[in-house]
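User: Reviewer 2 asked us to show a designed sequence for the structure in our supplementary figure. I'm pasting the structure tokens here. Could you produce the per-position amino acids so we can include them in the response letter?
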């Protein structure tokens, strides 16, 4: 596995910021790392990139422990921290050349030009970093994270503070580069996860509360959720109530019926047919990722 996080824990003083977290991230896949404010996302990412040491547990990058092999794992990893530190007095090209030389890259000029093209900085290449908008500074941060062609990319809220167009552009860049890399990105934006992530890890108060493929997560949590049953016109709900259901109105002539019963759809079909109800459709109610997130991160509320 490209990135393996094993029983990772970080304690600051008396606070457990990250508590026994384990998950893995695969090549060619974007893993969304979610959690409410203060959940421990940035702390986990800093440990994964070797910027702070875990209190317990370990992070393996391509099988190498980040604490034991700091140089090798840094060479394998590109990191865009939450506050994207840049030398604002430098010019775009000059800054990236400086980073390329710090990595000891051969053909640094060519590599810098490739990065400028990849992240869409051609028109800004001659500008001073202080003159760039937040979105373009974020692109510089991304170019910096990618310049040494790392196998693993760790991005802490890469689209935070960007305007809607910039968000779409940066997402597309991340998607394009993820084809042959392992990407872990933290975000607060659920549409972002739905748009680009394959896998979702959710933490809350330092603890892991979900670790699944996006589709599996949505499917699993929708399992017991309910069916929306729609008729041509409003119907007498007592048919369903007598059968032990609790229909809730869901629009003019539709009802949401929630139940754990595995044969829910079959039973509803039988009831409608036996009672001659004018059925229009029977669909599984889909929870949005936002609702799933809310539900999972509310569970641990005191
Ligand atoms: N250096 C530190 N010293 C003490 N406490 C810290 C330190 N860094 C983080 N924390 C605490 O650890 C907890 C997790 O913080 P972290 O920044 O990892 O959360 P986050 O999920 O990234 O939050 P956000 O979404 O708000 O950026 C918070 O309660 C924070 O105050």
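Assistant: Here is a per-position design you can include in the supplement:
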């Amino acid at each position: 596995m490209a990135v393996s996080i094993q029983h990772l824990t970080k304690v600051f003083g008396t606070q457990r910021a990250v508590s026994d977290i384990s998950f893995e991230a695969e090549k060619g896949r974007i893993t969304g790392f979610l959690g409410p404010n203060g959940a421990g996302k940035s702390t986990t990412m800093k440990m994964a990139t070797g910027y702070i040491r875990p209190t317990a547990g370990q992070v393996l990058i391509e099988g190498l422990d980040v604490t034991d092999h700091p140089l090798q794992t840094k060479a394998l990893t590109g990191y865009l921290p939450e506050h994207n530190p840049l030398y604002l007095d430098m010019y775009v090209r000059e800054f990236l050349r400086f980073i390329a030389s710090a990595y000891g890259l051969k053909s640094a000029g060519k590599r810098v030009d490739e990065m400028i093209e990849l992240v869409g900085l051609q028109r800004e290449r001659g500008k001073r970093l202080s003159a760039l908008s937040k979105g373009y500074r974020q692109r510089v941060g991304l170019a910096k994270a990618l310049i040494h062609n790392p196998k693993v990319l760790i991005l802490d809220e890469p689209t935070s503070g960007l305007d809607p167009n910039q968000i779409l552009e940066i997402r597309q860049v991340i998607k394009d580069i993820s084809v042959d890399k392992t990407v872990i990105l933290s975000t607060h934006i659920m549409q972002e996860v739905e748009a680009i992530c394959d896998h979702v890890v959710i933490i809350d108060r330092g603890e892991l509360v979900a670790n699944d493929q996006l589709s599996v997560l949505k499917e699993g949590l929708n399992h017991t959720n309910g069916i929306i049953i729609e008729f041509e016109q409003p119907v007498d709900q007592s048919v369903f109530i007598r059968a032990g259901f609790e229909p809730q109105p869901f629009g003019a002539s539709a009802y949401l019926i929630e139940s754990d019963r595995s044969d829910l759809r079959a039973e509803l079909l039988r009831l409608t047919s036996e009672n001659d109800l004018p059925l229009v459709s029977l669909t599984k109610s889909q929870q949005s990722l936002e609702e799933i997130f809310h539900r999972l991160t509310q569970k641990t509320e005191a």
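For the response letter, you might also mention the following. The longest strand covers residues 15-25. The CA atoms of residues 48 and 297 lie 23 Å apart.
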